[in-house]
Amino acid sequence: MIPKVVYCFLLAGFLGLNACELPPREKTATSEGTVLTTATSDEVNPDEEYVMVTTAISMPMYVNHDQSAFKRWGQKMGVKTSILGPSEWDVPAQIETIEQVIATRPAGLLINGTDPGIALAINQAVAAGIPTVVYDSDVPNSNRHAFLGTDWYQIGRMQGEEMVRLTNGKGKVAYMGILGLTNMEAGFQGLLDVLKKYPKMQVVGKYDDKANVELAAKITSDVLAAHPDLAGICGFDSNSGPGMALAVKEAGKAGKVKITTVDWEPEHLQLVKEGVIQMLAGQKRELFTWYGAQFLFDMVHRTNRLSANDAASNITNVPTTINTGLLRITRENVDQFLKK
Amino acid sequence: MIPKVVYCFLLAGFLGLNACELPPREKTATSEGTVLTTATSDEVNPDEEYVMVTTAISMPMYVNHDQSAFKRWGQKMGVKTSILGPSEWDVPAQIETIEQVIATRPAGLLINGTDPGIALAINQAVAAGIPTVVYDSDVPNSNRHAFLGTDWYQIGRMQGEEMVRLTNGKGKVAYMGILGLTNMEAGFQGLLDVLKKYPKMQVVGKYDDKANVELAAKITSDVLAAHPDLAGICGFDSNSGPGMALAVKEAGKAGKVKITTVDWEPEHLQLVKEGVIQMLAGQKRELFTWYGAQFLFDMVHRTNRLSANDAASNITNVPTTINTGLLRITRENVDQFLKK
């Protein structure tokens, strides 16, 4: 745990607060000023509050996908949504935020599963009777009621299959991401499981780009220098693609060295449009939080009660594990994503 | 494919029809005569029709869980729901029903994934632009947009872990179900993977009860005769439990020979209440069809549009694979299910 004062600085710094307390929460639903239809014939209390706790709260991918869908859900349902957490990637600060939110007794908690270390805080929320859903990465050692995310092994397989198509099943391939993360290692395995079936595909390196664009570009330049006949390169974190693309363009090999990678931020889409990246394996992050919030609501409102008293029965009446699937984005459909 | 005339007889026989055509569909929503709130601010067309196609349409477990939740969902949303299919377990007749329903262009199709053989009919529906969701068993070789079901490997593990607790980790165990079904074989494997970690647990037999109560009872009697010191027995189809319980009661060993099995129909619950069955691994079938229907609706209404045109982009904007999880029902919470 980082010292309290540091945590407060981070959180308050981002949110423009001075005191060491939870910031005033956004009231997405009530600030709209419109009457909204709701998903059940239950009475919906407009003060019913669903709280998302993440880390790196201002990361564009989180803001544009996870948070945007969560707010839109709250507006549709006529309930409050609040989004809390430190501005930087700071797991101890996220844990402290969860602990503080528990004390305010929200209707439901939607937690970005950033690290196995948040399991204890999740268990505190569950023990306090708060419906608690984890998204993005699972925290399987916790008592969370449900998890929604992407199957990263499939992200790797999808890239492997695309790379085989793009190279006609032969050539040298390198790949990079954040080494050691459970998600990414599963992705690497998926990639390798596909490539190993093609004896003419040769893996020349696995690299740690630490989610840093400059480092991803530097690694790619070095690999291109060592292997002038490199056929393709695969990326697994949000900055892998932009970094790899930069180096491949600088080497004058755009379109010749094939690139597949993850995520579909504007920069990634533009690089597909330009023909520098051949395929994006995109996550449906909007669905993590839209349906995650809906499951919280459905627990609160007992939408699908399975016994006389599901809490007393120690059962949950929402799905346990949701794989939202993948988007395959190529030059053929990239305009649909740029136009959105 | 069975001859058309036989199919019509089956379907019409069950539904009390004379002509060889689709029966008039139930209008659960409109017949209610009440104004219902809906899940989105979209205009909802009360003629918007969602069609479930199953087989063995009158099986109590299907009627009381799958179909009941689907109808309730339709009422909540203010749309039509229809349930079609042959009265017996008849996959060719289910396929023919799907093909006929496609021609009527429903808003969405919710299909019980009874057999890999229905893949072609599913693909026809998808090719016709009809949102198509599969539930219960997956048809992974099809183009279905989403699948909701139970992880049967976990059903086996759950029974194994319970049996270890009940027997203090030592004794002879037998198990039965429908041999050869993908789901059940995964369940058997889960059971064995748990038991093999306990050197004092001994598996004395794997049996095919063909989902027949009398056969399950006969097998159990024979196993008890061969192994008077049998510690426990595990079941994997809906009739395993009632059959095993019958034989164990007849042998005067209720509560001594431990029983774990699947499903939570009234008969199963009563046997838990009596102390003959120690644990049920229950499926959340209501969630298969409730959320399956919701995903169809969300595709139709583009609730979470991810691009300018998701159909043109060849992507789906609903989750791909949903594991609804398990209910652990024991003497401690069985009253909550009996009281429901």
Automatic annotation (TrEMBL), chains A, B:
<keyword id="KW-0732">Signal</keyword>
<dbReference type="InterPro" id="IPR028082">
    <property type="entry name" value="Peripla_BP_I"/>
</dbReference>
<dbReference type="GO" id="GO:0030246">
    <property type="term" value="F:carbohydrate binding"/>
</dbReference>
<feature type="domain" description="Periplasmic binding protein">
    <location>
        <begin position="52"/>
        <end position="298"/>
    </location>
</feature>
<dbReference type="Pfam" id="PF13407">
    <property type="entry name" value="Peripla_BP_4"/>
</dbReference>
<dbReference type="InterPro" id="IPR025997">
    <property type="entry name" value="SBP_2_dom"/>
</dbReference>
<protein>
    <submittedName>
        <fullName>Sugar ABC transporter substrate-binding protein</fullName>
    </submittedName>
</protein>
<feature type="signal peptide">
    <location>
        <begin position="1"/>
        <end position="19"/>
    </location>
</feature>
<comment type="similarity">
    <text>Belongs to the bacterial solute-binding protein 2 family.</text>
</comment>
<dbReference type="GO" id="GO:0030313">
    <property type="term" value="C:cell envelope"/>
</dbReference>
